[in-house]
Amino acid sequence: MSYTPENPLITQSDLSVLVEVNSPHYEEARDVLARFAELEKSPEHIHTYKISPLSLWNAAAAGLCASEILRALERFSKYDIPQNVAVEIQELMGRYGRIRLDRSGADLVLSADDPILMAEICRHKTIAPYFKGRIDACRVRIDLFYRGHLKQALTRIGFPVKDLAGYFPGKKLALHFRTTTASGVPFHLRDYQKEALETFYAGGGPEGGSGIVVLPCGAGKTMVGMAAIERLQYQTLILTTNITASRQWKSELLDKTSLTPDQIGEYSAERKEIRPITIATYHILTYRKKKGDAFPHFAIFNQGNWGLMIYDEVHLLPAPVFRFTAELQARRRLGLTATLIREDGLETDVFSLIGPKRFDVPWRELEAKGWVATAQCCEVRVQLPQDLRLDYAVAGGRAKFRIASENPLKIPLVEALIQKHRNDQILVIGQYLDQLEGLTRRLKAPIITGKTPGSDRDLIYGRFRRGEIGLLIVSKVANFAVDLPDASVAIQVSGTFGSRQEEAQRLGRILRPKTNGTLAHFYTLVTRDTRELEFARKRQTFLTEQGYRYTIRGAVDVFKESDTAA
Questions:
Q1: Burial letters 416-444, b for 16+ CB under 10 A, else e
Q2: What is the mean pLDDT of residues 397-421?
Q3: Could you write out the DSSP letters of every residue in 442-497?
Q4: pTM surpassing 0.85?
């Protein structure tokens, strides 16, 4: 067996890959590995990746082939790659594209490159109900209505279909990008945004028009979405996480395109406007009076002759929306996100119904080019007060996490960090309202939570953007699609268990490049020897995936630095 000690990878027969962080080739290997494997664990010295069927199919859809993956593993591996690994990678990647879905008149045609494979698929009990009739040994007729349902079912049994059935043309909408924004600033798409658009568009043919673009927060995902609208020139339905995000989309469209206010509609709890560009929230779409009722606002999917549907923060797409997306496969679909990780495990449904990952770029690559701010991440550990130790010891699992998260010793630590960064724009972000409301009283700072009316949110965000206030306390409502370009410090006092997607979004709040070129600082306050520390390790996995490393410090160190800064 050959041995290359300086290489960082140990590829194992179960398709897991161990990565040695201290290797001189670690960063290069990590960036290559991220294209076809998923990070599972990231302790200090050895990280664990998993090569899964879904990660390989996403890689295949993005243009990678099995031989490129195997060459990358061989290049960075310490030891010889187990023989079965090459066989399994080739077999799994070979499944992508073996089954095709094409259009034939009023029906779809599912075809396979092998009659035995088609026989196996036809006999599967979850696939058979969608068949309308056999054409020959390799082809089956499918009802148009079941296009999405069939794709879901095929992916789940391990045979992802290549959908070449094309799209219905939506109603045309003429618009163009401005060369100078309405606010008077020169505007053009960045090179990676153009590349993301072209990869999604794929020349306008059936191989394009559906899929996911993965870009860091602050890297301009919205610009890619607008570029897709501008390229296609179709009426578009945009789905967003909240009303603040919807209004930011409208603001960007008016600022950077020729669209006029009467061409853009808001579909929310406050307004129900259907216009050539309609922006709706996931919340209004999934509203119903009680469980078991129909979703009354799903009719919006058929109220406009949409040629494109954009799913903002697609990793948060509510499960009920998948059902209607399954029935709208003839519409072009673009998903935008900073991470494909879903806490509910429905990544395969995103792959089947929105489309595969079409474009991805590492955060650190954009950071090196100055498109996102350079960030320093620090975990600060604090003790649990003596008077809470008994309460913690006898509490249940969820209660333990909350006691640790709301540790009162975090409050003076927040004050010390604010003192250290007193000349910066600071966000204090947390999960628990009692904790945040206590902080706002102590710090005499404004707060935004889910209870804050939309008009008040816009007012407070505006004051923060203009520098009229330098400290803002926000709940998890600010995790998503909030444009705060000059925020340079985020202090996370509590989070949602081990949510990697939340960690991505919260770091993203401070990654927009700073006008003065300053560093961004991301602090997470964690109580020692508690469940909060366990979940913090899970959240950190995402940042490790993107090339960031946490420094771990004690509260005493922060207090010393604060005293020095004062």
A1: bbbebbeebbbbbbbbeeebbeebbeebe
A2: 92
A3: HHT--EE-TTS-HHHHHHHHHHHHTTS-SEEEE-GGGGSS---TT--EEEE---ST
A4: no
